[in-house]
Specification:
11% strand, 53% helix, alpha/beta
């Protein structure tokens, strides 16, 4: 029985590390941001709330066909697809691929936002996409759409983190036993425990080869974020969750 394994999250949250860890298993065929799937999934995710519905439907069908072809042509029973924007397609992928499994990862907001601010690809979305209408990918809601464009970039990145965190949490009830949620800090600091969880969840022996990450890296954000930036992140989170 062949299984697709989808890694879900927001950009700069550890999805690459998680994908490489899963892909290190000898039984897993890994596709990490494979252009055949990645750019199409990104296109769908970024315009899911603002695009033409007919166009979106066609693009989703294209992606599903590509994944079916991937499964058909794969020699492995475990096929990793690390395209983190599939977080917004998880329910549909669950229905189309009954054997698929999903692994989500969340990272500390300070680490995530700090990394976002240094990544030109992440920053480019704020010029490519409209900022005056709801868009889950960017974290624009009906509540903040009137002022989102005027927010400091740290707040915009934080809203994106918030939107993805809420979706990762919501998917726990939707995907149920087909979903495993991980915390980046815990994954880095306790690799043996979390590869054991992956082993049990995926139904494979524990032959993963996690990368050695220095624990000091979890504090690197403190070198890059000023106290003012931290305050912006904190106030944005407080406003969103209270």
């Amino acid at each position: 029985m062949k299984r697709l394994i989808f890694v879900l999250g927001t950009g700069r949250s550890g999805t690459h590390l998680l994908g490489r860890t899963i892909g290190s298993h000898p039984l897993v065929e890994d596709h990490i941001e494979d252009p055949d799937y990645f750019y199409l999934a990104v296109r769908i995710a970024t315009i899911q709330d603002i695009g033409n519905p007919f166009y979106l439907k066609i693009q989703k069908k294209r992606l599903i066909r590509k994944y079916r072809s991937l499964v058909k042509n794969s020699a492995s029973n475990y096929i990793l697809e690390k395209t983190h924007p599939n977080i917004w397609l998880a329910e549909e992928l669950m229905r189309k691929f009954p054997n698929a499994l999903f692994v989500g990862i969340i990272r500390n907001p300070y680490q995530t936002v700090s990394s976002m601010l240094k990544h030109s690809g992440v920053m480019s979305w704020y010029s490519k996409l409209p900022q005056h209408k709801p868009n889950r990918f960017l974290g624009i809601t009906e509540q903040n759409q009137s002022y989102f464009a005027s927010l400091p970039i740290e707040a915009k990145c934080t809203y994106r983190w918030i939107s993805h965190k809420k979706e990762l949490q919501r998917l726990k009830d939707v995907l149920n036993h087909r979903y495993l949620m991980m915390d980046y800090d815990d994954f880095v600091s306790q690799p043996e425990e979390y590869t054991r969880q992956l082993s049990e969840f995926l139904g494979v022996d524990n032959r993963f080869q996690p990368e050695e990450i220095k624990l000091e890296s979890l504090e690197k954000w403190k070198k890059y974020l000023s106290q003012d930036q931290v305050s912006i992140i904190d106030s944005t989170i407080d406003q969103a969750f209270h």
